[in-house]
Every structure is written in C-alpha cells, then in structure tokens.
Design goal:
With 261 residues, the protein is mostly helical. It contains 14 helices and no strands. It has helices at 8-11, 39-45, 50-63, 68-80, 84-97, 102-114, 118-131, 136-148, 152-165, 170-182, 186-198, 205-215, 220-228, 233-248. Helix 8 (136-148) packs antiparallel against helix 9. The two termini are 24 Å apart.
C-alpha cells in the first residue's frame, strides 16, 4: 500500500483485468523468409518471462503476419506486458485479416480498456460477450468498460449475467460491489462486498472496498477494523480519516470516481 493516505479511487479497484508489468521491448524485425517456429517451441515459450515471450512472438508475427496464432499471442503478450497501445494496433491489424476472431476481439477490447479508451472498448467487448454466451469473464470485462463510461445500471446487468453463469465468482462480486459504490449505493456495495470477501479466492482488494463502503455509511470504527486486516494500523487510520472527510463533505464524492475537481 501507499505510505500516504490513498484516494478512494485507488482503494476501490476493479479486478477484471490482467496484471500489467512495466516492460518495454522493441518489436523484432525478422526476415520475411524466416520459417515458422515449430509447435514445441511455441508451447515452450509460454513458460518463459513476459519479455522473452514478447520478443519471440514479435519475431513470429513479423515474419508471418497472416498467422492467426502469432498475431493473437503477440497482441496478448503485449497487453500483459503493459504495451497497451501497441497491443491495440496489432490486434486491430490482425482483425483485418481474421475478421471477428473472438480471442483477437477480446484482446483488442481489454487492451483498449487498459489504455483508458473505455468508450472504444465497448464494441469489441460486447461482441465477445454476444459470441460467447457462457463466458462469464467476457461479461465481467464488459461491465468494467460500462462502469468506466458511467453506465452503471448496464454494468450491473453485465455482472449479474456473469454471476448467473459463474455463481459467487469473487472477482465479479467485487466488480459488482464497486459498480454500486460508484453509483452512490454504499449499502448495496457493502452487501455485495461481504459476499465477495466470504467467497473462496476473494481478491485482496475486496476487503478494502468493503471498508470503503462501510465508512461511507458513517461506520468508521468498523471500517478501520476491516482496513487493519490488510494494511498497517496507522495507514488504516489515515485512510478512514480521508473517507470520513468524504462522508461529511458530499461535494468531494467526485474523488470516488477519480474525477477532477
């Protein structure tokens, strides 16, 4: 956690996206006549670090831009490695050759979302959700995009659809609770965050988000107790003091959404 009081927008994190490392790698410039790597080499590279994977798939995609697997793997590893804009570019280029490929579409949508281009992410993520009606992750990702453009009711429907497929999935519950919190329903958020915290495999931010929801209803001592489970006592006290300020001054609730005052 941070060493200073954290803004609520940092405390209350959505959890639908993959982790991003701060990696940078130049895209390889292989010769056009390079042969395809064999299946064993392609399988083995998945066990290497992200930077090594990025270099490998850059070479494969550069030599064989029509290769669907190379395009998908390269775009996805770029996304996971923090190269979101480049991932968008590669996925979009590949979709011109492999129109409506679902996994490319998913990577494009997630990369756009991680590049803070949520409005653009809506279409590909909605197409993935429509194409894969039993994929709860697709609906959760769509919900995140909808939350980011402040379409909270639509986001909550997307999360409920995900939960109908994968009941009690803690990451979806966390996202749903966050959506309630962003829309100003702290009591509804508390109820859902408690479900998330109780579920097996709950993300660590779920308890912190629960503390936020409790504090925003004026129950500061309870919120501090919850926060102490995941952070040093002095930091828990500082964060709850910050939340108390939001409670007594509703004009500052824009901080919850990360808005500029």
């Amino acid at each position: 956690m941070m060493n200073a009081p954290v803004r609520v927008a940092a405390l209350a994190a959505l959890s639908a996206l993959g982790a991003c490392a701060s990696l940078r790698a130049d895209d390889a410039s292989p010769t056009a006549t390079a042969p395809h790597a064999n299946a064993a080499a392609r399988a083995a590279i998945a066990r290497e670090d992200v930077l090594s994977q990025m270099t490998f798939w850059a070479a494969e995609y550069g030599a064989h831009p029509d290769d669907l697997e190379a395009a998908q793997r390269f775009a996805e590893v770029l996304r996971r490695g923090g190269r979101h804009d480049r991932a968008v570019q590669v996925a979009a280029e590949a979709l011109q050759r492999h129109q409506n490929d679902v996994e490319l579409m998913r990577t494009l949508g997630l990369a756009l979302l991680q590049a803070d281009r949520a409005t653009e992410a809506l279409r590909p993520l909605a197409m993935v959700a429509q194409a894969l009606p039993q994929d709860w992750r697709a609906r959760s990702s769509l919900g995140v995009a909808l939350d980011k453009v402040q379409r909270y009711a639509d986001a909550q429907r997307a999360y409920q659809e995900a939960l109908a497929i994968q009941a009690d999935e803690p990451n979806v519950l966390n996202n749903l609770g966050m959506s309630y919190l962003l829309s100003g329903d702290a009591a509804g958020a508390e109820r859902v965050f408690r479900q998330a915290v109780a579920a097996q495999g709950a993300p660590p931010e779920a308890r912190t988000n629960l503390a936020v929801a409790v504090a925003l209803q004026g129950r500061f001592e309870e919120a501090e107790q919850l926060a102490r489970a995941d952070m040093p006592p002095n930091l828990a006290m500082q964060n709850v003091a910050y939340l108390r300020g939001l409670f007594v001054d509703p004009r500052r609730w824009g901080d919850l959404r990360g808005e500029q005052n």
